[in-house]
Amino acid sequence: MTGKGNSVLHRAFRILKLFDPARVEMSLTEIAWAADLPLPTAYRITRELVDLGLLERNEQKVYRIGTSLWEIGVRSSHVLRLREVAMPFMEDLQVAVRQHTSLSILAAGEVLVLERLASHNEVPNISQIGGRLPIHATSPGLLMLAYSDPEFQESILARPLRRYTDRTVTSSAELRTILAEVRARRYAVADGTINPLGGGVATAIRDRADNVIAALSITYGLDEPVVQSVLPALVATARSISRAVSAQPQLSQSD
Known about the structure:
The strands form two sheets. This protein has a six-stranded antiparallel beta sheet, sandwiched between helices. A three-stranded antiparallel beta sheet has the order 1-3-2. It contains nine helices and nine strands. By secondary structure, the protein is an alpha+beta fold. Helix 6 (139-146) crosses helix 8 (172-185). The protein has helices at 8-17, 28-34, 39-51, 67-74, 77-97, 139-146, 150-157, 172-185, 227-246, and strands spanning 26-27, 55-57, 62-65, 100-107, 110-117, 132-133, 187-191, 198-206, 212-221.
């Protein structure tokens, strides 16, 4: 009997999850290796995914995400509506602070970037729309983790925390202290924890029941200490987005 984690559906999902902003195209051999599947199995599944329009294969026999999957994805009303509500406010914020600006949510224990607006500053913007970032090494991740339920927090604190730079927090005790500080001041700062040249500051977007449903963040270069200068605009923008979200019942966790 096929195990739950090894069903055809699970294996197809594993293949689809391989594609991300940093890896938009893959050969069949690369797919089989990355998904830990025998080559014939990977071939059968990818062929069916192509037939369904979930994957596309070009003349060089390279695979990429298909338009049918994109169509299904954009029908996710909660995520799409949140982005639409936030976007005008984000554009004003980015003009005001002239820094990279991002909107993120939590998904499967990671930070999922819904939208980002790039600035002309020199610090690399490692976030990509639809990309994922580590929860313990980014300002939006720390912000949302601080307001998550205790059971989820404990699951993160109990697992190994990957080190990305010499400033990444890998101690669960230190991370607990940081989360308490985030709750006390209502914003999170992560300087050099994933990118040694950049830092970030994030604050919460809340629904009408005061649940934290997303994070609004700004990324900056460490050679320009801007947190205190951008924080008032960041907080004010997050409040404006929260008020707009509160007017949308479908965006409230309590609903």
